[in-house]
């Protein structure tokens, strides 16, 4: 099936409707009739709402594709705010000439991921632009979730205090290197697979069993170093990190050595950093390790009183240095 | 990971740190010549593992940093040729020329591609026979043999559309220029990858003529700690010599095949180094047989001044005389996203490294 997207399928006319019906509505199970806005009848709670655009190049990479990424990314943004993700919208900008079967593959994986994450894709939009006016396929997803008011403090970390501990659910850097490898500009193949995954299951089990979660943030562009620097600045406290305890898979370490990347700055799509009260850290670690998305979870650092706004890294060889914000991107278009 | 973990062993490093602490008798200043060493020293926090009486200063060993503005201007002139593709190492793309940078030219439509090797540029030339491919050849003895092999392959294949804008350099004359400049140092941490090609013997003139110690050093923390200890001992014994710490890669005579390729394709010439000016016989130019690959032949002559912004102290930083914190532009007007001087551009540049690891004072 080599049918290609034509410019008319973005016209808003009959062909557009057919595309929406055949590709999107069918896969997402959207309620008929399709309207301009989705009406959300769930009420009785604070709503969390987020949006993100996805322009990853290439759109297919080991461990996922742009569609899976677009669902996981938005689900994770809601989940780390302490919310229970419920509804997503999905908007597609498609380049004229894009293979229909690729579009279907992307949309099918969105449907699978949405089902896994327990969210519904209930509204969307489709535009087709002339060849060369966008690169194959761009997707924007927005999402809402129900937020228990008792968890409102999690996104800002305002209850964090010195002595609290920092945890991560697994190894860093896999997504960035999987995408780089898939770009065909390395003269070798890599065994690295993206960590792209929805984390609301893991986060939900942690929050159900522990009241000591003080902050969560998913690690995307800029990696662990960026999130920790943002956190240190936000809470005006210091952070120390033990480099040796940050999980990094062997192939990622090897590639970083060869290519001159620091895994602490590389993008992830299925990693979350949590801050917990010190007494809860071990328990939260055990809960994470029992979840498929958290088997390599680790306690990686501490919140400290001094060196305010700064992240100090105790290097794996026993030295220490400041772990700064990255300047400029290590790799463009990885999500 | 094999060949990595052994050289990052915390216990070995802690033992070396003890030995260093017990060996020091005075203040020492050592210069790490290579930008790769500067990066490793900061990344692993080596300065926090050694006594304060040891000062490590960074030398001119980042090829991007010592490349003059006129080279960038020539590269931009190449990018404006009709049907041209520039193939460059990524670090070079943000280096400011006199009016623009390749990054800015790319956003204006120039076809500028990042490659990991000269051979990759040659492959682009094969795939695009209707276009002129210009590879920006910078680097020291480490990267120059790769360029040499590529030029030979281009010759064998009869390539008509492959060119090199060449600014390859060799290291020992710059080290001699630093010594003659009167910089107060007690020894060199010498670049291991340069010596893997050339052999350690190219540094012999330093202890012989200037009575300064040299240790040819690898790039892991154990390598650096061991090398610092060797230099302290040479100083304490007043017995300067060239020692090979990086003996898993370096021999006295080096890689004969790489040297043969290098001398077949290149010959010595005078070269401009940012921060130093012209250093005699410190550059490599294409021999007459390969001049047809010289990109300077396909652009009209570009005359620009290599002089830097007068308030930028990259030159003094490259010579190891001043630290980035002494620069009025550092961290304010000159930052990695918008570099004024070349030391802020490359990951291996002293200012960039200082900025990323936030060392103050």
A few lines on this structure:
Chain A has helices at 14-28, 66-79, 100-117, 174-182, 200-209, 223-235, 250-259, 281-289; strands spanning 46-54, 60-61, 64-65, 83-95, 120-129, 137-147, 165-168, 213-218, 238-242, 272-276, 298-304, 311-314, 320-322. Chain A is of the alpha+beta class and 335 residues long.
Description:
The complex is a heterodimer of chains A (335) and B (361). By secondary structure, chain A is of the alpha+beta class. Helix content of chain A is 29%, strand content 24%. In chain A, strands 8-10-7-11-9-12-13 form a 7-stranded mixed beta sheet. In chain A, β4, α3 (100-117) and β5 form a beta-alpha-beta unit. The model of chain A has no long low-confidence stretch (mean pLDDT 89). Chain B folds into 3 domains: 5-62 and 182-244, HypD, alpha/beta domain 1 (Rossmann fold); 69-170 and 254-297, Rossmann fold; 314-353, no CATH class. By secondary structure, chain B is an alpha/beta fold. The mean pLDDT of chain B is 91. Chain B has 13 helices and 11 strands. The two termini of chain B are 35 Å apart. The chains are: A alpha+beta (335), B alpha/beta (361). Chain A binds chain B through residues 185-187, 244, 250, 253-254, 257, 260, 262, 310, 313, 315-322, 324, 327-328, and chain B through 1, 4, 8-10, 13-14, 17, 42-49, 94, 116, 120, 221, 335-337, 347, 355-359.
